[in-house]
Amino acid sequence: MTVFTLLHTIISVLPVGLGLAAYARRGAIDPKTRLGRWYVGTMLAGTVTGFGFILTIGFTPGQALGLLTLALLAIGTLTLRGNWRKAGYTQTVALSASYLLLWVFLTTETLKRFPTGKPFASSPADPALIPVRIALLAAFVIGVTFQVLKIRMSTRHAQKVTTARLAA
């Protein structure tokens, strides 16, 4: 393992814990918080360093997903303000999707190497990874559904409070 590969791996693992901590604390990754900023920063660094492998292995589907990850991070951070944000839905879905892609990378790369000697998967296209990806997708759908319902409830509550104040 080269120094660059080790550095990329260390940087790329950080957002796993940061994202999990953000979900545990706030139910979402919010770039306005310290955890959210660290998540976005380490995701950005991990994704960008992933493009350093193009020189040795060429452009792969992993780099294509890296471009998608960069787009999701941009959407998630650039929609902090503005009318098209729609009460945080765009930001929430984009950053949650970036977390999903992080887990796709993490599980794929881990299962291609472990257990040592006889890895679970031979390549990113190995059919053995399909159940893992389905489980990740299911967790994503459940998580985003929870987040959207939470936003909707808080938005409705805020509207009721505003309406009650105007009526009084």
Automatic annotation (TrEMBL):
Keywords for the protein's UniProt record, in alphabetical order: Membrane, Transmembrane, Transmembrane helix
Transmembrane segments: 6-24, 36-57, 63-80, 87-108, 128-149
Highest rank taxon of the organism: Bacteria
Keyword Transmembrane found: yes
Protein name: DUF2306 domain-containing protein
Organism name: Limnoglobus roseus
Lineage of the organism: Bacteria, Pseudomonadati, Planctomycetota, Planctomycetia, Gemmatales
